[in-house]
Amino acid sequence: MAKRATFVTKLGVIAATVGSSVGLGNIWRFPYETGQNGGAAFLLVYILCVLFLGLPVMLAEFVVGRSAKANVNRSFLTLAPGTHWNIIGYMGVFAPVFIMGFYSVIAGWTLDYVYQAATFGMSQKSPEYFATAFTEFTASPIRPLFWIFLFLGMNYFIVSRGVSDGIERASNILMPLLFVILIAFCVRSLFLPGAKEGLSFLFHPDFSKIDSGVVLRAMGQAFFSLSLGMGTLITYASYFSDKTSLPKTAVTVASLDTFVAVLAGVIIFPAVFSFGISPSQGPELIFITLPNVFQQIPGAYIWSVLFFVLITVAALTSTISLCEVAIAFLHEEFHFTRRRASQILIFICLVMSTLCSLSFGPLSDFYILGFSIFNFCDFLASNILLPAGGMLISIFVGWKLDRQFIKEELSNHGVSRVWYFGILMFCMRFVAPVAIFLIFLSGLGLF
Ligand code: PFF
User: Of all helices (H) and strands (E), which one includes residue 226?
Assistant: First the structure.
Protein backbone atom coordinates (compact mmCIF):
# COMPACT_ATOMS: atom_id res chain seq x y z
CA MET A 1 0.00 0.00 0.00
CA ALA A 2 1.29 3.49 -0.85
CA LYS A 3 2.54 5.48 2.12
CA ARG A 4 -0.04 7.93 3.42
CA ALA A 5 0.69 11.64 2.97
CA THR A 6 1.77 13.72 5.98
CA PHE A 7 2.75 17.28 6.78
CA VAL A 8 6.51 17.31 6.68
CA THR A 9 7.57 20.04 9.11
CA LYS A 10 6.43 21.34 12.48
CA LEU A 11 5.95 24.77 10.97
CA GLY A 12 3.82 23.24 8.23
CA VAL A 13 1.51 21.66 10.82
CA ILE A 14 0.98 25.02 12.52
CA ALA A 15 0.76 27.05 9.30
CA ALA A 16 -1.83 24.72 7.76
CA THR A 17 -3.94 24.35 10.90
CA VAL A 18 -3.85 28.04 11.81
CA GLY A 19 -4.55 28.71 8.12
CA SER A 20 -7.70 26.65 8.35
CA SER A 21 -8.97 28.44 11.42
CA VAL A 22 -8.01 32.00 10.49
CA GLY A 23 -10.44 33.03 7.79
CA LEU A 24 -13.47 35.14 6.99
CA GLY A 25 -14.74 34.17 10.44
CA ASN A 26 -11.97 36.25 12.05
CA ILE A 27 -11.71 39.20 9.72
CA TRP A 28 -15.22 39.55 8.35
CA ARG A 29 -17.51 38.11 11.02
CA PHE A 30 -15.75 38.62 14.36
CA PRO A 31 -15.48 42.44 14.13
CA TYR A 32 -19.13 42.98 13.33
CA GLU A 33 -20.28 40.45 15.93
CA THR A 34 -18.14 42.28 18.51
CA GLY A 35 -19.47 45.63 17.29
CA GLN A 36 -23.07 44.54 17.67
CA ASN A 37 -22.74 42.63 20.93
CA GLY A 38 -21.00 44.75 23.54
CA GLY A 39 -17.36 45.13 22.42
CA ALA A 40 -14.99 43.79 25.07
CA ALA A 41 -17.79 42.01 26.92
CA PHE A 42 -18.35 39.88 23.81
CA LEU A 43 -14.61 39.33 23.51
CA LEU A 44 -14.46 38.07 27.09
CA VAL A 45 -17.31 35.62 26.60
CA TYR A 46 -15.72 34.56 23.34
CA ILE A 47 -12.41 33.77 25.04
CA LEU A 48 -14.19 31.68 27.69
CA CYS A 49 -15.91 29.75 24.89
CA VAL A 50 -12.58 29.12 23.19
CA LEU A 51 -11.11 27.79 26.46
CA PHE A 52 -13.94 25.55 27.67
CA LEU A 53 -15.57 24.56 24.42
CA GLY A 54 -13.19 25.18 21.54
CA LEU A 55 -10.05 23.62 23.00
CA PRO A 56 -11.73 20.40 24.21
CA VAL A 57 -13.49 19.81 20.88
CA MET A 58 -10.31 20.62 18.97
CA LEU A 59 -8.37 18.10 21.05
CA ALA A 60 -11.12 15.55 20.52
CA GLU A 61 -10.78 15.99 16.75
CA PHE A 62 -6.99 15.78 16.96
CA VAL A 63 -7.16 12.54 18.97
CA VAL A 64 -9.53 10.93 16.46
CA GLY A 65 -7.59 12.02 13.36
CA ARG A 66 -4.06 11.39 14.55
CA SER A 67 -4.78 7.98 16.09
CA ALA A 68 -6.80 6.66 13.13
CA LYS A 69 -4.69 8.30 10.38
CA ALA A 70 -7.51 8.21 7.87
CA ASN A 71 -10.23 10.39 6.31
CA VAL A 72 -13.22 11.36 8.48
CA ASN A 73 -15.33 8.37 7.57
CA ARG A 74 -12.57 5.77 7.92
CA SER A 75 -11.37 7.33 11.19
CA PHE A 76 -14.65 6.51 12.92
CA LEU A 77 -14.81 3.07 11.30
CA THR A 78 -11.30 2.36 12.57
CA LEU A 79 -11.87 3.57 16.13
CA ALA A 80 -15.36 2.14 16.53
CA PRO A 81 -15.70 -0.79 14.12
CA GLY A 82 -19.15 -2.23 13.60
CA THR A 83 -20.92 0.92 14.84
CA HIS A 84 -22.64 3.81 13.10
CA TRP A 85 -20.40 6.56 14.46
CA ASN A 86 -19.06 7.08 10.96
CA ILE A 87 -22.26 8.99 10.27
CA ILE A 88 -20.28 11.93 11.73
CA GLY A 89 -17.82 11.30 8.90
CA TYR A 90 -20.55 11.56 6.29
CA MET A 91 -21.77 14.81 7.80
CA GLY A 92 -18.19 16.02 7.63
CA VAL A 93 -18.01 15.21 3.94
CA PHE A 94 -21.22 17.07 3.07
CA ALA A 95 -20.72 20.13 5.26
CA PRO A 96 -17.75 21.51 3.26
CA VAL A 97 -19.79 21.55 0.08
CA PHE A 98 -22.34 23.85 1.72
CA ILE A 99 -19.73 26.00 3.43
CA MET A 100 -17.76 26.26 0.19
CA GLY A 101 -20.98 27.35 -1.53
CA PHE A 102 -21.39 30.58 0.43
CA TYR A 103 -17.78 31.07 1.54
CA SER A 104 -16.48 31.10 -2.06
CA VAL A 105 -19.02 33.76 -2.97
CA ILE A 106 -17.62 36.12 -0.33
CA ALA A 107 -14.06 35.18 -1.30
CA GLY A 108 -14.97 35.92 -4.93
CA TRP A 109 -16.24 39.36 -3.92
CA THR A 110 -12.96 40.07 -2.15
CA LEU A 111 -11.02 39.10 -5.28
CA ASP A 112 -13.10 41.57 -7.28
CA TYR A 113 -12.33 44.21 -4.65
CA VAL A 114 -8.60 43.47 -4.97
CA TYR A 115 -8.96 44.11 -8.68
CA GLN A 116 -11.05 47.25 -8.17
CA ALA A 117 -8.60 48.62 -5.63
CA ALA A 118 -5.55 47.78 -7.76
CA THR A 119 -7.00 49.39 -10.90
CA PHE A 120 -7.98 52.63 -9.10
CA GLY A 121 -11.67 51.69 -9.24
CA MET A 122 -12.11 52.85 -5.65
CA SER A 123 -10.30 56.17 -5.66
CA GLN A 124 -12.20 59.43 -5.26
CA LYS A 125 -15.55 57.72 -4.82
CA SER A 126 -18.40 58.92 -2.59
CA PRO A 127 -19.82 56.84 0.29
CA GLU A 128 -23.06 56.39 -1.70
CA TYR A 129 -21.05 54.99 -4.56
CA PHE A 130 -19.72 52.12 -2.42
CA ALA A 131 -23.18 51.12 -1.22
CA THR A 132 -24.74 51.17 -4.69
CA ALA A 133 -21.75 49.54 -6.38
CA PHE A 134 -21.79 46.67 -3.86
CA THR A 135 -25.50 45.96 -4.32
CA GLU A 136 -25.24 46.14 -8.09
CA PHE A 137 -22.15 43.98 -8.18
CA THR A 138 -23.53 41.21 -5.96
CA ALA A 139 -26.81 41.14 -7.91
CA SER A 140 -25.10 40.88 -11.28
CA PRO A 141 -25.34 37.38 -12.79
CA ILE A 142 -21.89 37.15 -14.39
CA ARG A 143 -19.22 39.32 -12.80
CA PRO A 144 -19.17 37.64 -9.36
CA LEU A 145 -19.10 34.23 -11.05
CA PHE A 146 -15.90 35.08 -12.83
CA TRP A 147 -14.18 35.80 -9.50
CA ILE A 148 -15.71 32.79 -7.77
CA PHE A 149 -14.42 30.52 -10.53
CA LEU A 150 -11.00 32.08 -10.25
CA PHE A 151 -11.02 31.57 -6.49
CA LEU A 152 -12.05 27.91 -6.87
CA GLY A 153 -9.34 27.54 -9.52
CA MET A 154 -6.78 28.71 -6.94
CA ASN A 155 -8.12 26.08 -4.54
CA TYR A 156 -7.79 23.40 -7.21
CA PHE A 157 -4.26 24.48 -7.99
CA ILE A 158 -3.26 23.95 -4.35
CA VAL A 159 -5.23 20.90 -3.27
CA SER A 160 -4.62 18.84 -6.38
CA ARG A 161 -0.89 19.02 -5.60
CA GLY A 162 -1.34 17.03 -2.43
CA VAL A 163 -0.83 17.45 1.28
CA SER A 164 2.80 18.49 1.60
CA ASP A 165 3.45 19.87 -1.90
CA GLY A 166 0.10 21.64 -2.08
CA ILE A 167 -1.49 22.48 1.25
CA GLU A 168 1.62 22.64 3.41
CA ARG A 169 3.69 24.60 0.92
CA ALA A 170 0.92 27.09 0.20
CA SER A 171 0.27 27.59 3.93
CA ASN A 172 3.97 28.13 4.59
CA ILE A 173 3.96 30.97 2.09
CA LEU A 174 0.52 32.45 2.69
CA MET A 175 0.39 32.48 6.49
CA PRO A 176 3.56 34.55 7.03
CA LEU A 177 2.25 36.93 4.33
CA LEU A 178 -1.03 37.19 6.21
CA PHE A 179 0.71 38.02 9.49
CA VAL A 180 2.95 40.64 7.90
CA ILE A 181 -0.03 42.43 6.33
CA LEU A 182 -1.98 42.20 9.60
CA ILE A 183 0.83 43.74 11.64
CA ALA A 184 1.34 46.51 9.07
CA PHE A 185 -2.37 47.33 9.26
CA CYS A 186 -2.34 47.26 13.00
CA VAL A 187 0.46 49.80 13.20
CA ARG A 188 -1.28 52.00 10.61
CA SER A 189 -4.54 51.80 12.48
CA LEU A 190 -3.03 52.83 15.82
CA PHE A 191 -1.95 56.13 14.25
CA LEU A 192 -5.45 57.06 13.09
CA PRO A 193 -7.19 59.92 14.95
CA GLY A 194 -9.95 57.61 16.26
CA ALA A 195 -7.50 54.98 17.56
CA LYS A 196 -8.14 55.67 21.24
CA GLU A 197 -11.89 55.54 20.91
CA GLY A 198 -11.76 52.44 18.75
CA LEU A 199 -9.53 50.61 21.18
CA SER A 200 -11.51 51.61 24.20
CA PHE A 201 -14.62 50.27 22.49
CA LEU A 202 -12.83 47.00 21.85
CA PHE A 203 -11.26 46.70 25.30
CA HIS A 204 -13.88 48.26 27.65
CA PRO A 205 -16.64 45.81 28.34
CA ASP A 206 -20.30 46.79 28.16
CA PHE A 207 -21.81 43.98 30.23
CA SER A 208 -25.32 45.31 29.84
CA LYS A 209 -25.31 43.91 26.31
CA ILE A 210 -24.62 40.35 27.47
CA ASP A 211 -27.63 38.06 27.51
CA SER A 212 -28.12 34.40 26.65
CA GLY A 213 -28.40 35.22 22.94
CA VAL A 214 -25.00 36.93 22.95
CA VAL A 215 -23.40 34.00 24.79
CA LEU A 216 -24.77 31.64 22.17
CA ARG A 217 -23.50 33.84 19.36
CA ALA A 218 -20.05 33.85 20.96
CA MET A 219 -20.11 30.05 21.20
CA GLY A 220 -21.17 29.70 17.57
CA GLN A 221 -18.51 32.15 16.50
CA ALA A 222 -15.80 30.29 18.45
CA PHE A 223 -16.87 27.10 16.83
CA PHE A 224 -16.87 28.40 13.27
CA SER A 225 -13.67 30.34 13.77
CA LEU A 226 -11.73 27.35 15.06
CA SER A 227 -12.97 25.18 12.14
CA LEU A 228 -14.60 22.70 14.49
CA GLY A 229 -17.36 20.19 14.02
CA MET A 230 -17.02 18.87 10.51
CA GLY A 231 -13.85 16.85 10.55
CA THR A 232 -11.50 19.43 9.06
CA LEU A 233 -9.23 19.07 12.03
CA ILE A 234 -9.71 15.30 12.08
CA THR A 235 -8.46 15.24 8.49
CA TYR A 236 -5.55 17.61 9.16
CA ALA A 237 -4.58 15.72 12.33
CA SER A 238 -4.46 12.52 10.31
CA TYR A 239 -1.45 14.10 8.57
CA PHE A 240 0.33 14.99 11.85
CA SER A 241 3.37 12.93 12.79
CA ASP A 242 3.41 10.82 15.95
CA LYS A 243 5.80 13.33 17.49
CA THR A 244 3.45 16.31 17.08
CA SER A 245 2.23 17.43 20.48
CA LEU A 246 -1.55 17.63 20.20
CA PRO A 247 -2.12 19.88 23.25
CA LYS A 248 0.62 22.32 22.23
CA THR A 249 -0.70 22.48 18.67
CA ALA A 250 -4.26 23.08 19.91
CA VAL A 251 -3.18 25.86 22.27
CA THR A 252 -1.07 27.50 19.54
CA VAL A 253 -3.88 27.34 16.99
CA ALA A 254 -6.55 28.62 19.39
CA SER A 255 -4.30 31.46 20.62
CA LEU A 256 -3.27 32.59 17.14
CA ASP A 257 -6.83 32.41 15.89
CA THR A 258 -8.05 34.56 18.78
CA PHE A 259 -5.09 36.91 18.35
CA VAL A 260 -5.97 37.46 14.69
CA ALA A 261 -9.63 38.11 15.54
CA VAL A 262 -8.54 40.72 18.11
CA LEU A 263 -6.09 42.23 15.60
CA ALA A 264 -8.91 42.48 13.06
CA GLY A 265 -10.81 44.44 15.71
CA VAL A 266 -7.75 46.63 16.38
CA ILE A 267 -7.57 47.35 12.66
CA ILE A 268 -11.22 47.95 12.03
CA PHE A 269 -12.57 49.85 15.05
CA PRO A 270 -10.08 52.75 15.05
CA ALA A 271 -10.82 53.20 11.33
CA VAL A 272 -14.55 53.09 11.96
CA PHE A 273 -14.39 55.57 14.86
CA SER A 274 -12.04 57.90 13.02
CA PHE A 275 -14.71 58.51 10.42
CA GLY A 276 -17.73 58.62 12.70
CA ILE A 277 -19.32 55.38 11.56
CA SER A 278 -21.34 53.15 13.88
CA PRO A 279 -19.35 50.11 15.07
CA SER A 280 -22.44 47.94 14.90
CA GLN A 281 -22.59 47.67 11.11
CA GLY A 282 -23.46 44.18 9.88
CA PRO A 283 -21.87 41.93 7.27
CA GLU A 284 -21.47 44.77 4.78
CA LEU A 285 -18.89 46.36 7.11
CA ILE A 286 -15.90 45.24 5.06
CA PHE A 287 -17.42 45.73 1.61
CA ILE A 288 -19.12 49.10 1.97
CA THR A 289 -17.87 50.85 5.08
CA LEU A 290 -14.18 50.03 5.01
CA PRO A 291 -13.40 50.77 1.34
CA ASN A 292 -14.98 54.13 1.99
CA VAL A 293 -12.92 54.64 5.15
CA PHE A 294 -9.71 53.67 3.36
CA GLN A 295 -10.25 56.37 0.75
CA GLN A 296 -9.90 58.94 3.48
CA ILE A 297 -6.54 57.91 4.88
CA PRO A 298 -3.14 58.68 3.39
CA GLY A 299 -1.90 55.86 1.15
CA ALA A 300 -5.49 54.82 0.36
CA TYR A 301 -4.46 52.90 -2.74
CA ILE A 302 -2.03 50.55 -1.09
CA TRP A 303 -4.11 50.01 2.06
CA SER A 304 -7.21 49.11 0.05
CA VAL A 305 -5.31 46.61 -2.09
CA LEU A 306 -3.60 45.08 0.94
CA PHE A 307 -6.82 44.78 2.91
CA PHE A 308 -8.57 42.74 0.25
CA VAL A 309 -5.45 40.66 -0.42
CA LEU A 310 -5.42 39.92 3.31
CA ILE A 311 -9.00 38.68 3.27
CA THR A 312 -8.44 36.60 0.14
CA VAL A 313 -5.40 34.92 1.69
CA ALA A 314 -7.28 34.23 4.92
CA ALA A 315 -10.19 32.75 2.97
CA LEU A 316 -7.99 30.61 0.74
CA THR A 317 -6.10 28.89 3.55
CA SER A 318 -9.47 28.03 5.11
CA THR A 319 -11.14 26.75 1.95
CA ILE A 320 -8.26 24.42 1.11
CA SER A 321 -8.85 22.74 4.47
CA LEU A 322 -12.55 22.45 3.71
CA CYS A 323 -11.78 20.88 0.34
CA GLU A 324 -9.31 18.46 1.89
CA VAL A 325 -11.98 16.77 4.05
CA ALA A 326 -13.92 15.67 0.97
CA ILE A 327 -10.87 15.05 -1.20
CA ALA A 328 -9.26 12.70 1.35
CA PHE A 329 -12.59 10.89 1.54
CA LEU A 330 -12.98 10.50 -2.25
CA HIS A 331 -9.33 9.58 -2.67
CA GLU A 332 -9.19 6.96 0.08
CA GLU A 333 -12.68 5.50 -0.04
CA PHE A 334 -13.29 5.47 -3.77
CA HIS A 335 -9.67 5.24 -4.92
CA PHE A 336 -9.85 8.26 -7.21
CA THR A 337 -6.47 9.86 -7.80
CA ARG A 338 -6.03 13.06 -5.82
CA ARG A 339 -6.27 15.06 -8.99
CA ARG A 340 -9.54 13.40 -10.02
CA ALA A 341 -10.94 13.72 -6.46
CA SER A 342 -10.06 17.44 -6.52
CA GLN A 343 -11.75 17.88 -9.89
CA ILE A 344 -14.93 16.22 -8.69
CA LEU A 345 -15.06 18.29 -5.53
CA ILE A 346 -14.24 21.60 -7.17
CA PHE A 347 -16.89 20.94 -9.80
CA ILE A 348 -19.53 20.37 -7.10
CA CYS A 349 -18.36 23.55 -5.34
CA LEU A 350 -18.65 25.46 -8.62
CA VAL A 351 -22.27 24.43 -8.94
CA MET A 352 -23.08 25.24 -5.30
CA SER A 353 -21.38 28.62 -5.29
CA THR A 354 -22.93 29.57 -8.64
CA LEU A 355 -26.35 28.94 -7.11
CA CYS A 356 -25.40 30.90 -3.99
CA SER A 357 -24.14 33.80 -6.06
CA LEU A 358 -27.19 33.89 -8.27
CA SER A 359 -29.37 34.04 -5.18
CA PHE A 360 -28.34 37.72 -4.91
CA GLY A 361 -29.64 38.38 -8.44
CA PRO A 362 -31.65 36.26 -10.86
CA LEU A 363 -32.51 33.61 -8.23
CA SER A 364 -33.37 36.09 -5.49
CA ASP A 365 -37.01 34.95 -5.48
CA PHE A 366 -36.09 31.33 -4.96
CA TYR A 367 -36.34 30.21 -1.33
CA ILE A 368 -35.56 26.98 0.49
CA LEU A 369 -37.44 26.76 3.82
CA GLY A 370 -37.72 30.53 3.77
CA PHE A 371 -34.00 31.14 3.11
CA SER A 372 -32.26 32.38 -0.01
CA ILE A 373 -29.88 29.73 -1.38
CA PHE A 374 -26.88 31.59 0.04
CA ASN A 375 -28.45 31.88 3.49
CA PHE A 376 -29.67 28.30 3.35
CA CYS A 377 -26.12 26.98 2.82
CA ASP A 378 -24.82 29.21 5.61
CA PHE A 379 -27.66 28.17 7.93
CA LEU A 380 -27.42 24.45 7.19
CA ALA A 381 -23.65 24.33 7.61
CA SER A 382 -23.06 26.83 10.44
CA ASN A 383 -26.20 26.24 12.48
CA ILE A 384 -26.89 22.57 11.94
CA LEU A 385 -24.06 20.46 10.52
CA LEU A 386 -21.16 22.05 12.43
CA PRO A 387 -22.76 22.10 15.89
CA ALA A 388 -24.29 18.63 15.42
CA GLY A 389 -20.93 17.29 14.25
CA GLY A 390 -19.08 18.98 17.12
CA MET A 391 -21.51 17.63 19.69
CA LEU A 392 -21.25 14.10 18.35
CA ILE A 393 -17.45 14.25 18.16
CA SER A 394 -17.11 15.36 21.77
CA ILE A 395 -19.61 12.69 22.89
CA PHE A 396 -17.72 10.10 20.86
CA VAL A 397 -14.36 10.92 22.38
CA GLY A 398 -15.67 11.67 25.88
CA TRP A 399 -17.95 8.65 26.24
CA LYS A 400 -16.96 6.04 23.69
CA LEU A 401 -13.16 6.08 23.52
CA ASP A 402 -11.14 4.58 26.30
CA ARG A 403 -9.73 7.17 28.78
CA GLN A 404 -6.30 5.59 28.75
CA PHE A 405 -6.26 5.63 24.95
CA ILE A 406 -7.01 9.37 24.93
CA LYS A 407 -4.35 10.02 27.54
CA GLU A 408 -1.75 8.09 25.55
CA GLU A 409 -2.52 10.16 22.44
CA LEU A 410 -2.46 13.46 24.30
CA SER A 411 0.80 12.70 26.07
CA ASN A 412 2.41 11.07 23.01
CA HIS A 413 2.66 7.85 24.99
CA GLY A 414 3.98 9.37 28.16
CA VAL A 415 6.39 11.91 26.65
CA SER A 416 4.56 14.86 28.20
CA ARG A 417 2.40 15.22 31.28
CA VAL A 418 -1.33 15.85 30.88
CA TRP A 419 -2.01 17.42 34.28
CA TYR A 420 -5.28 18.94 33.03
CA PHE A 421 -6.70 15.60 31.88
CA GLY A 422 -9.55 15.53 34.42
CA ILE A 423 -10.77 19.03 33.49
CA LEU A 424 -10.46 18.24 29.81
CA MET A 425 -12.50 15.05 30.08
CA PHE A 426 -15.14 16.90 32.08
CA CYS A 427 -15.38 19.52 29.32
CA MET A 428 -15.51 16.87 26.58
CA ARG A 429 -18.13 14.78 28.34
CA PHE A 430 -20.42 17.44 29.79
CA VAL A 431 -19.59 21.08 29.05
CA ALA A 432 -19.09 20.83 25.29
CA PRO A 433 -22.06 18.56 24.43
CA VAL A 434 -24.50 20.59 26.55
CA ALA A 435 -23.20 23.96 25.34
CA ILE A 436 -23.21 22.86 21.72
CA PHE A 437 -26.71 21.47 22.09
CA LEU A 438 -27.82 24.92 23.23
CA ILE A 439 -26.15 26.57 20.23
CA PHE A 440 -27.92 24.05 18.09
CA LEU A 441 -31.35 24.82 19.53
CA SER A 442 -30.75 28.53 19.28
CA GLY A 443 -29.47 28.12 15.71
CA LEU A 444 -32.75 26.44 14.91
CA GLY A 445 -34.50 29.43 16.45
CA LEU A 446 -36.00 27.29 19.21
CA PHE A 447 -35.10 29.74 21.96
N1 PFF B 1 -12.47 28.80 10.43
C2 PFF B 1 -12.83 29.41 9.18
C3 PFF B 1 -13.04 30.90 9.42
O4 PFF B 1 -12.95 31.37 10.56
O5 PFF B 1 -13.32 31.59 8.46
C6 PFF B 1 -14.04 28.80 8.54
C7 PFF B 1 -14.08 27.32 8.54
C8 PFF B 1 -13.06 26.60 7.92
C9 PFF B 1 -15.09 26.65 9.21
C10 PFF B 1 -13.05 25.20 7.99
C11 PFF B 1 -15.12 25.28 9.27
C12 PFF B 1 -14.10 24.57 8.66
F13 PFF B 1 -14.12 23.29 8.72
Answer: none
